[in-house]
Structures are given as structure tokens and as C-alpha cells.
Design a protein that fits this description.
This is Transposase. The protein is α+β, with helices and mostly antiparallel strands. Helix content is 39%, strand content 14%. It has helices spanning 29-45, 71-92, 99-110, 134-150; strands at 13-18, 48-55, 59-66, 129-130.
Length: 174
Amino acid sequence: MSEKYRFHKDGLFFVTMTVVGWIDVFTRKKYADEIIKNLNYCIEHKGLEVYEFCIMSNHLHLICSAKDGEVGKVIRDFKSFTAKEIIRLIDENPQESRKEWLLYMFRYFAKGSSPKCEFQFWQHHNHPIWLESRRFILQRTRYIWNNPVKAGIVSEPQHYIYSSANPDTELKLS
């Protein structure tokens, strides 16, 4: 893997986490709220520092760092825990009309991964990009803020509830 897409200690990173098969999971408020809840946990208990974020239907973007400099470890733990929680929420949700299909797809993507792994929720890579200058930070911030606008979800970035552009976000930003 290129050095360009690796976490290194004490960096500020633009990170994209994508659901396997680009499956639209976060169209359900319950699952997007779980992402917010788990990010807040990582902020409060694992030293994650989130400066910008956006949760789209099948992926999320963060500009983040970690107090101990090990953002890669925090992201790994976040992905592992949220994968299990969201799959549990899907499985236990009697209102989830796509339950069988979603669980089938997460099993399908887990095949060949690990014998212990029944489901795979997240793609393995995060493509962390080290933000080495103010110019890169501003460029990625604009990208994050305008993602729901370009997707046609909202007309103004601040209207999207699952974004740092929204002043009423429930995520505890740094």
C-alpha cells in the first residue's frame, strides 16, 4: 500500500469509511444515529478528535486525529464495534424491510475474509490522507460539507443533519 494511504503517528487525516458493496445503510436514521453515538464514545473515551464529518447513505468522511497520535487504532476499533452494533440493530429490527437482504450481503462480503468472521460491514481500507497544509484541510472541509449538496439531499450544507456543517450536530466536534 502506498505511503499516501497510511496512518502515521500524530497526523491530521481525511478518512473515508465505506460500507461493503456501497450498500445504503445510513438511509435509516437508527443506523446513522448509531454512528454518531459511537463516534462520540471514541471522542470521550479513546481520544478521537473529529473536526469535520459527514455521514452519507453508504459511507462517512472524517477529518480527524487522536490525542495519543494513534488515529489508525481508534478508527480500527470504531469500525469493529460499529459493524457489530449495526448488524445487531438490523437483525433485531422488526421494521427493517431489507433485513434478509442486508444480512445476506454482509455474509457474502465476509466469505474468504476470515473463518471467524460471519459478516463484513465495512470495506477494509480507509484511504487516510494526511492533511499536511491548511490548503488541503480547507479543500477536504469543502468536499465534506458539499457532499450532501452534490448528492441532491439538501440545497445548503448546513441543512444536512449528519454533517459538521450543521451547527446543531450531535457530534462533539473538536
